Amino acid sequence: MIVVTLGWGARIQWRWLTFAGALTYPRYLLHETMGRTALRALHDRDVKPWTAVAVVTGGMLVTAWLVHRLIEKPLTPRVKTGMTRSIDQLRAATYPRGPEGLARGAYCPGGSGMRQVIRKRSDGGWPGRPTGIMLFTR
Prior knowledge:
Layout: H1 2-5, H2 15-44, H3 49-94, E1 107-109, E2 114-118, E3 133-137
Antiparallel strand pairs: 1-2, 2-3
């Protein structure tokens, strides 16, 4: 985390790292249930342990790639659009007159046990998107 935070790895441009990173979440979601089921099935057929681990690992990587390619990639734009709309609606309901009427650093009520702090951008304007709102738990 220190390497990433301080930017020491910024010059590393290995494309396979991006590909491997894209597979981590689907693999995380699938590996326990599907992996255990596959390992049990191979164990019942007297497959050697290391062979079973290699086959299941390869199968899980292929499955993770399929989930990423066929589910995550097509749905990402739709989810992003829906999230942006929801946040904009929440902001409109929370600040019916817009953030301009609030003092710098003013605390405003948020939803689900959170408070929101409104901060101006460095150029003095108010943020047009939720990136200008910082959320703090109570």
